[in-house]
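Supplementary Methods. Inverse-folding protocol.

Structures were first reduced to a discrete structure-token string of length 137. This string, shown here, constituted the complete conditioning input.
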């Protein structure tokens, strides 16, 4: 899963329930930069007036306690760079894709643009749209 999914844990928006259901999985993995990306969403929501500073800080605490197994990005960089170049995606996004490929696990995202850009035949079977995931309940 990527930061677009993690942000839905703390900001109520479309597919937040499906994102919350992922927290019940046995293990969730993400490159260790996921927190910076997800916290940036909180900052953005606060800057644009969607959250107060106090609300953003409270949600930050929840986000930082999420049960994610963070994987150091250094080992993912060579394959992430190749994925980025080959698919026209950012290295930030490619790090998630490289991790999913290395661990042979599904990659869940709420970033429709990213899903459209990935053309690599080896990666396509790993891609999952958050809207297609079951909701909590």
């Amino acid at each position: 899963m990527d930061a677009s999914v993690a942000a839905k844990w703390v900001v109520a928006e479309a597919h937040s329930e499906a994102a919350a259901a992922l927290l019940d999985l046995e293990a969730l993995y993400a490159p260790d930069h996921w927190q910076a990306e997800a916290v940036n969403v909180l900052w953005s929501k606060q800057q644009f007036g969607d959250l107060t500073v106090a609300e953003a800080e409270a949600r930050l605490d929840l986000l930082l306690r999420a049960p994610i197994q963070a994987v150091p990005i250094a080992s993912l960089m060579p394959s992430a760079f190749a994925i980025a170049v080959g698919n026209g995606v950012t290295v930030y996004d490619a790090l998630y894709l490289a991790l999913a490929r290395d661990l042979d696990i599904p990659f869940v995202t709420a970033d429709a643009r990213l899903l459209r850009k990935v053309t690599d035949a080896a990666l396509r079977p790993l891609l999952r749209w958050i809207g297609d995931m079951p909701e909590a309940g």
